[in-house]
Fold this sequence. Notes:
By secondary structure, the chain is an alpha+beta fold.
Amino acid sequence: MEDFPYFFYDPILFPPHAGAMNREREGTLRPYSATNPDLLVKSAKTSQSLMLDVKKVMDTLATSKPFSNRLMTAAQASKKSVVIDMIRQIGIKNEPDITYNPDGIRFDFYPKAGEENCHIIVSLKWRDV
Length: 129
């Protein structure tokens, strides 16, 4: 420790940050605005209905190997309309946007128009890279 030079802090060479000086002068940080949980509650309620649709799709994929096989086959053959029809037939209220590639499939669940306060993305792999 003795070999290191001693560093003297010189406030003229290294002045404190201007923001730090303002906070010291004011004494407190800027206060937060008042909270209103209405939109958060509405978003949570909307996401609950989306979660029901997500659960239906995931349950179908997890429990029906023939359905999953047909879905993968249609996706890999670039038959998007078949993939969409298969997902519709599950009986969901909110149809997801579906994208896929050779590694997996992605479902983007959005609520109906006018309730664009949340969305749920589910991405599933079907091939190890």
